[in-house]
Amino acid sequence: MKRFKDYCAVLxxxxxxxSAGCDAKPTETTEETxxxxxxxxxxxxxxxxxxxxxxxxxxxxxEFVIKEDEIYKLNVDDEVYLRCNFFDTTRDYxxxxxxxxxxxxxxxxxxxxxxxxxxxxxxxxxxxxTLVGLEDDGYKVKFEKKIDIPPLVEAKPSxxxxxxxxxxxxxxxxxxxxxxxxxxDITVPGNIAEMVDSMIEVTQExxxxxxxxxxDEFPADTMHPEFIYLGCAPFEELDVPKSKARIYFIKDxxxxxxxxxxxxxxxxxxxxxxxxxxxxxxxxxxxxxxxxEANLGYFSTTLTEGxxxxxxxxxxxxxxxxxxxxxxxDYIGNLDKITPDNASEIYAKVNTGEDGPAxxxxxxxxxxxxxxxxxxxxxxxxxxLIDKLSDIQGDNFVNNYYPSTxxxxxxxxxxxxxxxxxxxxxxxxxxxxxxxxxx
Length: 439
Ligand SMILES: [Zn+2]
Fold this sequence. Notes:
This protein is α+β, with helices and mostly antiparallel strands. The chain has a domain at 29-143. It is 37% helix and 18% strand. It has 15 helices and 17 strands. The strands form four sheets. It has a six-stranded mixed sheet. The protein has a six-stranded mixed sheet with strand order 10-12-13-15-17-16. The chain has a three-stranded antiparallel sheet with strand order 2-9-8, with no helix packed on it. Strand 12 and strand 13 (178-182) form a beta hairpin. The longest helix is centred in the last third of the chain and has 19 residues, at 301-319. The site of zinc ion has 7 residues, from helix 7 and helix 8.
């Protein structure tokens, strides 16, 4: 099932930094790819650029070379300054810092296979910057015309689930539990607000955990709604209370292959014809990642994906729909081989991606393990794990605990007993042929 493989493979790559928890720590990834996080602070802490008036001025469309430690001012009504903190062409990316009306943005360029640099997805600011070329000691760049940021208006869908609502502008709806952002030109069910709220209720009930309103940052190398629009950030101005989750329905208008993803406060659902029938599943899947990350941080790729599949199926059942895209023969991969004796070994292989091409086994193995956990330890089984993690790691483990696969295995045993994996292996023998694991 190509469709699913595509979805899943990219999901693993882009979706959800939790996934990176076991293989590469999200914080590390962020540091590696974005000096912005560290250097940006420097920009904010130093004297505001505006107080000094002696910077060279450039026009829109004018090519100029910016060298290390230089600042240029753009000759427009807005206050726009471009700063080069360091000159280095040996890396895979180039970052320039841009101040726009007192706010910090940055422009990032990724090295291409042919050695040139192209504006990357994470380049967002209202004045797009083009890298024209590299000089011996500076970057030749030019500013493009400002992107108009369109107004955000309140959506008024009918509320009728049998009607469709086509979004004309950038729109939002505040619901009981969330603020929904609707991208221009997408079509959603007329009852989208009710759908999101019922999804949140069903999901929370099903997995025994709640949305927490935990602070989060968009990790710089994962998808950020603003990245998609290269600074045309229609959703940026809306102030969402922490008590409400942010749910974005986004169109991949440049066909960049965006896939749905989530952080501890935000679920981003990429809308396309391909996924329309899967909206229920996808919504619950991503929102489950939100809850997982808020409660368990970066504990386990396998468990977060498994839980997301589990909750996705539950919301589909609630909604009375069923998609057929989950689990192909390939997807199940090596899972046929699970026994009480090797269940933890296979967990390790699946979790670290050593399971060969069937790395999507995160979903299949995780789904079965999560189902086993709920059926064996009851509906509060994840709270048991969270309590154990808090006991051992402290209350703040969610923010700073990135356990290795071995640590995950020992934490699971600590929470559920030494025979956790053995018991799962036994359960597996009798259960892995169930229809929900073979869709
Ligand atoms: Zn997922």
